[in-house]
Amino acid sequence: MTDLPAGTAPRSVLVTGASTFLGGYLVSRLAENPDIERIVAVDSRVPSKTLMRRMGRADFLRLDIRRPAIARALAGYDVDTVVHAAPSIMDAAGHSAAIKELNVVGSMQVYAACQRTPSVKRVILRSTAMIYGASSADPAYFREGTPARREPKRGYGRDMLDVEGYARGLARRRQDIDVTILRPQAILGPRIATRMSSYLSMPMVPVVFGHQARLQFLHEEDALGALEWATTRGTPGTFNLAGDGVVTLAQAVHRAGHVQLPVPPQLLSPLVGVLRDGRLPSIRAEQEGFLSFGRVLDTTRMREELGFHPRYTTRETLDDFIERGNTSPVVSEDAWRRLQQRAVSAATAIQ
């Protein structure tokens, strides 16, 4: 098998995490591409019937990426491109030991299989902006080469720091493999379920007293578009992904028509659990930092080197989530406008 030049569509693609929103819908998009001969969808869980139908001509393999069977799949299907979308942020109990094992051990097994398979020439990793952490010492914008001032010590961010390291190790050992690492900002959309979507859907949203987090969002369609773009274009490197613009947490809550509940940092996690009736796992230390300080990415490389341009800005992503997602305002827009007018009138009268 010859090298797979950048900009050339792959011939045989294997996607891990096929039962997840991003993995499954990426498979469905790739299945519609006539230039790709074969698509292999892999997961230890069977996708929903709806998602399975959307996968079309793709072959689904139910296997655990922590097991040697992943190497046999790569060789058996003569795979030249691997999209590793399986790393997970949580299960019902939060970031459990099983999730950490899937993320870290599973990724090690995938990369080891890629290294032993001569046909593999392109690897795409869906990482996360959480690897930068979040603290008061952060720069205004994180560039891909900016080290985290306070690296995540545990949780999903820590997992992905390790997983990224293994991916770069693969690139050093197999220099004929192009490795692309994508670091998406918080993903929102009307269909995808994330911690942020669950958090912003609460009618009363606990926020850290005295802090104003600066946020960026990436629309679910742009997250899928970036994965598809990287899969078919094959530009190696590490790239931040986010929509243009920044909103504060207060603005996000306000636009959703919900009510802020300022609390001390130590009460954030228990209150979120109570107000969501246990449906949102406890907020961990890394999420507390994010909801206190936020995180903003520099996306110059995404545009100039990767060549990807999101369709949605941060604000448009938020508005689409509010309009079409599973959330409804506690206070209507007209009511907010009347309250604002009353506040302005009262302030004018006092002056």
Automatic annotation (TrEMBL):
Ranges where the NAD-dependent epimerase/dehydratase domain occurs: 13-242
Protein name: SDR family oxidoreductase
Organism of this sequence: Gordonia alkaliphila
